[in-house]
Amino acid sequence: MKLKIDIRSLNYDDLEVFCLKNKLQKFRAKQIDEWLWKKRVQSFNQMSSLPNHIRDLLSEHFSINHVNIHKKEKSKDGTIKYSLKLWDNSYIEGVLIFSKKRITACISSQVGCSLDCNFCATGTLKLKRNISASEIFDQVYILNNEAVNLCNRPLSNIVFMGMGEPLLNYSELLKGINKITSKNGLNISSKRITVSTAGVTKMIKKLADDMTKFNLAISLHSAKNEIRSKLMPINKKIDLQDIKEANKYYYNKTKKIVTYEYILFDNINDSLEDARLLFDFAKDLYCKINLIEYNPVKGFIFKKSSNKRTMLFIDFLKNKNINVTLRKSKGKDINAACGQLVNELK
Asked: Which of 57, 65, 81, 238 has the most beta carbons within 10 angstroms of its beta carbon?
């Protein structure tokens, strides 16, 4: 049996064309679009403002591939990890992170990942497929509803730091973000969205060419090619000089500052020499540094940097007038923190 087309893979113009071909008034396309995105119905029968014959017509030609919460688990610090089930019985994970002023949703962009970063649990999963724009939208819609229901507040920030490499799903990523930020979608400001990449420089330059308005973060983790290649095999093809050039290109086009993410691993990349190399890398770039505590992953050899080495590292960079912050991890006890997502809740 042939699979029906997911109606949310069509753009608004496609909906109008479908309506005209089937002798429906043009305004029906707007109604359908609102039901699909603003109200996020999961069945054509729920489109109560449409006559039955139109609902039947849509059902005959299309499906609505939706995402649902499968399971969730709460950390002692309040963080909630969600296992989300996709239409084809694939699973991804998303996370809600709470603080006094913010509610942040961590969103996935792929089912699995192909980059094999040696410290990341997701890298142990084979890449199954990219996530569609509507599945990206659904994750944000679901976690926003959860935030409202739990705290009576909507999401304040969205980070694409979940499963997968966002820039290897470029087209669907941008379509999804466009719907999230659209008045016909969730109307969330692009300034509140951050996309994190392992450093796919060709696509970083494309982000600049496309004049995207969301924020960009790059996972660096070492300013020494030898160490970075061991942590992140992608560095063997796209090294630090490539990243530096892409950063300059991106800033010259967009005037937006890039955030570099740097996980501190004990006795691997946390020495004062490592801090000096990071300073040398960053000193002539428009950027800021976000240091991250390592979150242990079962079966991995890496350990969190000591408090003493972490503070020495931070002080060195601050004394060099580098914009640096330390991000405290949340959700470690339920494997919901950075680098820990591995579909454990299936």
From this structure: 81
